[in-house]
Write a structure and sequence with these properties.
Blueprint (H helix, E strand, L loop, with lengths): L1 H21 L5 H11 L6 H11 L3 E4 L4 E4 L4 E4 L2 E12 L3 E11 L5 E12 L1
Antiparallel strand pairs: 1-4, 2-3, 4-5, 5-6
């Protein structure tokens, strides 16, 4: 009986750690770092697209332009090709719903140069 309880506790702890590792509630920087483990800088456009299409259902490839990096102090276009993935959303009171999207930018040689995560919160 004690053994069953210990196994159950281990499984529960494993699930909590796993959920925390992939939680969309982490900071944008932490999420981007995890995505770079999937597709390290220097990965080819084709390889990244294949990996991301297998893992995520909402993948948008753009072979004609980079993505628009939008930060508080500036905006810039990153790369000449890009991939966008909607990672999901979560709800948090009192703020509202937060949508989380990730962008991969590729240089003229088709190599990954930046991964950026953008969170947008729709307030109530």
């Amino acid at each position: 009986m004690v053994l069953v309880g210990l196994v159950g506790l281990c499984v529960l702890l494993f699930l909590v750690v796993l959920m925390g590792r992939w939680s969309l509630r982490r900071s944008s920087v932490e999420i981007a770092q995890g995505l770079k483990e999937l597709t390290p800088l220097g990965t080819s456009y084709e390889r990244a697209a294949a990996v991301l299409e297998r893992r995520y259902s909402k993948t948008k490839k753009n072979e004609k332009t980079g993505f628009l990096l939008q930060e508080m102090t500036h905006q810039e276009t990153v790369g000449v090709k890009s991939i966008e993935v909607h990672l999901g959303q979560y709800f948090q009171l009192p703020l509202g719903r937060t949508s989380v999207d990730a962008f991969w930018g590729f240089d003229t040689n088709g190599k990954l140069i930046k991964v950026w995560v953008w969170k947008i919160t729709d307030s109530l």
